[in-house]
Amino acid sequence: MKSYSILEINEVLKGVILGTTNQKITAPEQIELANSSEISFIGNKKYEKFWGTSKAAVAIVNEDISIAPGLNRAFIKVKNADLAMSQVLKLFAPPMPLFDCEIHPTAVVDKTAVMGNGTRIGAGCYIGPNVVLGDNTTLYPNVTIFDDCTIGNNTIIWSGAVIRERCHIGNDCILHPNSTIGADGFGFRPCPEIGLAKIPQIGNVIIGNSVEIGANSCVDRGKFSSTVIGDGCKIDNLVQIGHNSRLGRFCVMAGNSGLAGSVTLGDGVVIGGSASIKDHATIGNGAIVGGGSGVIGDVPAGKTVLGYPAVEARVALKQWAILKRLVSFSKK
Questions:
Q1: What is the edge-to-edge ordering of all strands in the sheet holding 150-151?
Q2: Matching HAMAP family, A to Z (predicted)?
Q3: Which of 264, 202, 254 minimizes the C-alpha distance to 228?
Q4: How many CA atoms lie within 13 Å of 250's alpha carbon, on the beta-carbon side?
Q5: 39, 86, 138, 186 - which has most CB atoms within 10 Å?
Q6: pLDDT value at residue 330
């Protein structure tokens, strides 16, 4: 079991220690569940009230903390408690699943595929013709990568992921279990002869560097050209990204949200859980779409929109307040 003193932890965090404790720290834990050998964090002042009943020996706190640690307990004061806690989690992280060999004997690797140095391929994987895998790429069991794809350096692809033909994934990416990259876009048109005619989807998907795609999420290929996910984007589980959509850098999409076809997101856009964006809409840099909202038009840069259909946040809040008053009045 890993354990660290508060001084050893602070060597990593480079914060300011308030209080004292000689307790060795054996794990991080949320503040309500932590025991006397664990470290927690207070990332918001509203959680200070839990410290009095918590058993944690140490908490990572922001610089504006307004309470004292108490007897034989300590705080590590930092500029950003959330980011500091992520460093602590890395200290205590258990090892990743092990590989007995670099390429498992049950993996099927086409003779034309190119393997980078240090690449590891798990049991039951399929690597198609002309695939290029970068250095230190890890494919866990039962990953499928079809023809002419490229995968960058240090990328991790978890079990069950499927990457369709001609798609390109950058460096330092993580694809979680059962994610699908490059499925056909949802394209059909009424046809007198057959009812619905399928529109061929002949484009691909291009994913930048340091992108994370959650479990069971799907990024559809372009009808023509590419669906593009910019550098640093973070996509939650169960997210749908439609064909020919283009995400800028560092966008965030929470679970069950979705983009219809040809949506454009600027840099730093945040899409809340279960929000949906109409096809061909443009969401400007830094805009926020609240959870459960339905966006049916463009959103200017920096704006926050809420509701179904989504409107500017302050307008939505006024509408809800008026509706609440009307309902209360009708009951009188």
A1: 114-115, 132-133, 150-151, 168-169, 204-207, 226-229, 246-247, 264-265, 282-283
A2: LpxD (MF_00523)
A3: 264
A4: 5
A5: 39
A6: 74
Catalytic residue among 104, 168, 243, 280: 243
Cβ partners under 8 Å of residue 326, min gap 6: none
Distance CA 252, CA 272 (A): 8
Q: What is the pLDDT of residue 332?
A: 67
Euclidean distance between CA atoms 316 and 309, whole angstroms: 10
| Dihedral sign for Cα atoms in the order 64, 68, 69, 72 | positive
CATH architecture of 6-92: 3-Layer(aba) Sandwich (3.40)
pLDDT for 195: 97
Nearest to 65 by CA among 78, 52, 56: 78
**Low-confidence residues in the chain, pLDDT < 50:** none
The ranges of the chain annotated as CATH 3.40.1390.10 are 6-92
Burial of 138 from C-beta contacts in 10 A (0-12 / 13-18 / 19+) = buried
Report yes or no: 289 and 295 within 8 Å, Cβ to Cβ.
yes
Which residue intervals of the chain bear CATH 2.160.10.10? 161-314
Question: What is the sign of the dihedral through the CA atoms of 111, 113, 118 and 119?
Answer: negative
pLDDT at position 224: 93
104 is a catalytic site residue:
no
| Helices 81-92 and 6-13: angle between axes, nearest 10 degrees | 120
- In whole angstroms, give the CA distance from residue 188 to residue 183: 15
Pick the CATH number of 161-314 from 3.30.980.10, 1.10.260.40, 2.160.10.10, 1.10.10.10: 2.160.10.10
Please state, in angstroms and rounded to a whole number, the distance separating the CA atoms of residues 67 and 86. 23
Number of H helices, E strands in the chain: 3, 37
